[in-house]
Fold:
Amino acid sequence: MADAMNAIEVNHVSKSYGKVRALDDVSFAVRRGEVFGLIGPDGAGKTSMFRILCSLLLPDAGTASVDGFDVVREMKQVRRRVGYMPGKFSLYQDLTVEENLQFFATLFGTTVEAGYDSIRAIYSHIERFKDRRAGALSGGMKQKLALSCALVHQPSVLFLDEPTTGVDPVSRKELWEMLGTLRERGITIIASTPYLDEVRRCDRVAFLHEGKVQGIDTPENILKQFAEVFNPARPISSAPSVSYVATESQHTEQENAIEVKHLVKAFGSFRAVDDISFEVRRGEIFGFLGANGAGKTTAMHVLTGLNQPTSGTGTVAGFDIRTEYEQIKRHIGYMSQRFSLYEDLTVAENIRLFAGIYGMKDSDIKQKTDEVLQRLKFEDHKNDLVRSLPLGWKQKLAFSVSIFHEPAIVFLDEPTGGVDPATRRQFWELIYEAAARGITVFVTTHYMDEAEYCDRISIMVDGKIKAIGTPDELKQQFQQPDMDHVFTHLARQATRTS
Amino acid sequence: MSPFFSFILKEARHILRDRRTMLILFGMPVVLMLIFGFAITNDVKNVRTVVVTSRMSPQTQAAMTRLATSEYFTIVATVPTPEEAERLIRNQKADISLTPYPKGNQWHITVDGADPNMAQQWSTYAQAILTGSPAAAPVSIKLLYNPQMRSAYNFVPAIMGMLLMLICAMMTSISIVREKERGTMEVLLVSPVRPLMVIVAKAIPYLVLAFFILIVILLMGHYVLGVPLAGSLVWIVLVSVIYILLALSLGLLISNIAQTQLVALLLSAMVLLMPVVMLSGMLFPIESMPRILQWIAAVIPPRYYIQAMRKLMIMGVGINEVLNEVLILSAMTAVLLTVALAKFKVRLE
Amino acid sequence: MLKYLLQKEFLQIRRNAFLPRLIFLFPIVMMCVIPWVMNQEVKNIRVCVVDNDRSVRSQQLVHRIEASRYFIFTGQQPTYADALHTIETSEADIALVIPPDYSKGHGQVLIAANAVNGTKGSIGSSYLSQIVGASPSTAPSTTIPAGPSTAPSTAALSTSSLSTQNVSSAAILSQPSTLTLYNPHQDYKVFMIPALFAILTMLMCGFLPTLNIVGEKEAGTIEQMNVTPVPKWAFILAKLIPYWLIALFIITACLVLSWAVYGITCQGPLGLVYLLAMLLALFFSSLGLVISNYSDTMQQAIFVMWFFVVCLMLLSGLFTPTRSMPDWAYLTTYVNPMHYFIDAIRTVFVRGGGFEAIAHQVLALALIGLTMATWAVASYRKNS
Structure:
C-alpha cells in the first residue's frame, strides 16, 4: 500500500464558520517521519487544520486520515496516536510546574522519568522552578512548560500549533534540535511557526493563505516563491533615526528619557531584577532583550509604575519611579504582552477611550482617529469589533493606540509575538514613524532581526544586564557574526538556580 | 499512577489550593446553620408597645403592668392620644398600640400590619395577656415531631438541599467550563484518555467534598442545634447520594451549554439557586402558591430531597413512606444523567 | 475623563450578549413571579379526620372544614394510627380526632399537626381549632382569629405571665377590638414587594460589578488601565455609575409593576424610595468592587459575594422580625445596611412615612455606603 507511507492524508477538506471560509478545498499528504511545516499569515486556517486532524473539529467536506485512521469515523484510534499542543495551550495555573508535567505525563500513559529524555533540553531551563505555581511563571517560561507537557510522551504523530511564540531564540534552537531527535525515532511532526529560521528546518512546508493551499514544497522553494510575504525588505525608516553618535555630542542629563541606577525588584528571596543600571536617550529605539525569565517584563513593570522597585533609583521622562509613578503614566504609552485592547469595543471606540483617558479633546480625537486609521489602512474597519480582527492587525492597532496621545516614551512588551513576517515589517515601519516624531521606543522582542533594527540594545541574563550598546558594537565586542549569535552566546551563560 | 487517579489528584489540588473558596464552602454551612438555628425566629419577643394613657382605669392599669412584665412586650412609650400612637407606629418606633376604653378592662388594639403573620400573632398575644385568660378551649392540640417549634428542624434539611446542589452542580460546571475557556480541554480530549473518564474523574472530588459538607451539616445539626436524626442513617446517606448524583448531572449539563465561566455562573445562579431557594418549599410553602407555580415546583429536584430528608431525619419514618420522593429523585437522576452524557461533546464546536 | 470611561462601561454592557437581557428581564420576571412565591400565608392545609362519634354534629364539623378556604379535606381514617400514617406519607398535614361523645358536648377534640415546619403547624392548628371552636354548642362566642391557647408557646405564656395574676378577675372581661393598620387585608404581597426591591437591587448591583472587575483582571485589560493616568476614583466611579442607573431602572420597573400587576402603590413620597434604593445600590456595588479587588478568579469572587449577600439578607429582618433575634444577632443589624433599608422602605412604601420617619436609616445607609465606596477606591491598587 502506497498510503502506508503517508502518516497524514488530507483530501479536499473545507471548513466554514458561518460565512467565514476557514479552509477551502485543502489537500496535502505528509510522509511518515517527516517534519512538515504549516505556514501562513494569521487567519490562514492553520489552527482549524490542526483541530480537524486531531479530530476536534468535523470538516464540512472532504476527508482526512492520521496514521491510516479516518479522523471522523475512527476518532478513538486517532486520539490514541497523536500528540497535540494547541496555539493557546494553557496550563493549570494553580498547579506547580512539576505537578503540571506529572499530570500530563500520566494523562498520556507515561511518566516524567520515562519521557525525560525527550524534554530534557527544554525542561532543564525551568526545572529549577519546579515547585513554583505555573501561574507565577513568566510568559515564555509558561510556553516552555507547555512544550514540555506536550512532548513528554512520544506519539506517532505530533501536532504543534505555533509552539515557540514568545520563546527566546536559544530555547527555540534547542526545541528544534529536540524535534530533530524525535524525527529520527520515526515520529511525524507537523508544526506551524511564524519564524523563518524554523521554517527552514522543516523537510517540506505547505503555505496556506486565506484557507487555500498556495504551495507545497521544500522550505527554500516556498520562501523563494513567496518571497514578498516571507522576506520583506528591511523596514524603511521614514526619517533618519537619532543616531548614537549624534546624541552623544549633545548629551546632557535632560536628554535621557529613562535613567535607572542599581534597580532591584525581588519577590521574596528571588531577585527577578538584580541590580541593573542603564540609560535610554530621548528619541532612541531601545531594544531590551533577554531570555525567558531573565526579568524583562518585571523591569518594565517597575519602569511603567505598575510595581514598586525593591531598591535602587530611576527616572522615566524625568519623574521618579518610586514616588511620581502617576506622573510617569501621563507621559508614557504601554502595550502589554497580553493583548491590551477591549475586545468587545470597536476600533474607533477603543481609540476614543484611551485618547479620552489621556485628556485629549473630542475634536482632536476625531480628527486624529481618521488620520491614524487612514495610515493603517483601517478606514473600512473603523466600526468592527476588535475581537473580529486578525492578530497582526490588533497588534498594529494596539501600538497606534498606545502612541495616540503622543507620549514621550512608549513601552512595548513583545509586540510582535506570533505575527507573520510581512505584518512585522509593517509594525516596524510604524515604530520608525513614531521614533521619527521624537517618541522614545523601549521594546522587548525575541526576533533577532528586529534587534538589528534598534538603535541600541541591552541583553539581560539572570536579572542582570550583561551587554549594552549598538548592535554593531555588540557584534564586535563578542566577536559574533550577527545578533542571533551574540544573544545565544550570552544567554547560554545563564546559571540562575533560585 | 493511573491516569484516573492522577486526574482526581489534580482536581483535588485545584479545590484545595483555592483557600478562599474552601473557606466559604465550609464556612457557609456553619454560618447558615447558626443563623437559621438561632437568629431566624418568628417568636413574639420584644414587641415595642405604645400605650395611650388618657383614659386609664385601675383595671387597665393592672392589665398594662401584666403586659409590661411579660417577656413578649416592651412598653416603649406612653402617649396622650391615639393619633400620636399611630405616628409612632408609622415612624417605626413601635409595633403595636393599646388604647383602653373608659370603662372596665376593655382595649382597642392597633397593630402594624405590614407583616401579616406577625401582626396576627402580636395581637393574639396581646389579647391573651390583657384579658388574662386563655379561653377554655374545646380542643387539645398536639404538635407532632417538633413540639418546641424549633425552626432548625425545618431548615436543616433545606440547607442540605441547597448547599449540596450548589457545590455539586455549580462547582462542577464551572470547573469543566474553566478548562474549556483556558484551552486545556482540547488537550484532554485529544489525549488517549476516554472523555467519559475525564468527566467522572472531575466529579469524584466534588462528590467527596459534598459528602464532607453533608457530614458537617449533620453533625452540627445534631449536636449544636439539637435536630434529631430520628430515621435510619443509612437511608439518609443513600438518598443524599442519589441527590448528589443528580446535582452532578445537572452541573455536567450546564457545562455542556455554557462556553464561558461567566455564563456557567449565571446559569447556575439563575437556573439552580433561585428556584431552589424560592420554589423548593425551603422558605415559602408550596401549597400557598398559584397553581402554575406549583407545577413548576413539582419539577424542582431539591423539593423532593428536602421533603425526604424532613421525613427521614425529623419524623423518623421508614423508607416506605419516602418511597415516592426517592423514586422521583431516582427517575430525575437517570434522565438528567442520560441527557448530560448524551449531550457531552467529544469535539469542539 | 470620566465621560470616556463611562462610555466604555455602557458599551461593554450593551455589547454583551447576555447582560442587557438579564438586566431588563430579570427584574420583570422576578416582580411577576416572586410575590406569589414569597407568601407565608398558610393555606391549602390537608386535613384527615378520625370520626369516633359519627353523629350529625361531627358531620357538620367535617363540612365546615371542607368549606374553609384554608383546608383541604383528604378523607376519613378509621383510627388515629392510620391518620398518623397519612401524615408520615405526607398525604395529610393535620389529623383531627373527634371524640366518641362529641355530640353530647363531652371530650376534647384532638388536633395533631405535623410541626416540622413550625409556622405551618401552629398556624394550621390554630385555624382548625377556630373552626372546631366556632361549633355552636361548645364554644361561647370566640371570634378571635387564633385563640391564645394555640399560640406557639402556650405553656410558657400561661405559666410565666398569667399565673402571677388572678385569672378569675380577668375572665369576665370581653375581648378587645383589634385594628390592623396599613395592611387591612393582611396581604402578604404588601409586605414582600418592598423586600423584593431590596433583593433585586442587591442581586443586580452586587453581583454584576463583582464580575466586571474580575473579568478585566482575567482578560488582562486592567494592566493596560493601570499604566494610564486614570485616577483611582474615576476608574471606580465609572464602574459604579452604570449600576446605579440599573438600580434606578429596577426600582422604576418594580414600582410600575407593583401598581399594574398587584394594585399596590407607594404610600409615602416616591422620591424617598429612589433615595433609599440609590443608597443601597451604592453599598452593594461598592461591596462587589471591594470583593473583586481582593479576588483572583470569578468563582472566588462570586462565592465570597454570595456568602455576604445571604448573611446580610437573612439577618436584615426581610423575612423574620429582627427583634425576635437573640442579642448577638440583633447587634449585627446595626451594621447591616439591608436592615436599615428594609425598615425604611417598609415605612415609606407600606406605612406612608415621610423623611423624618426614616432620617436615621437614611443617615446610616449613607454612612455605610460611603465607607464601602472609600474602601473600594482604596483597595484598588494601580501600583503594587
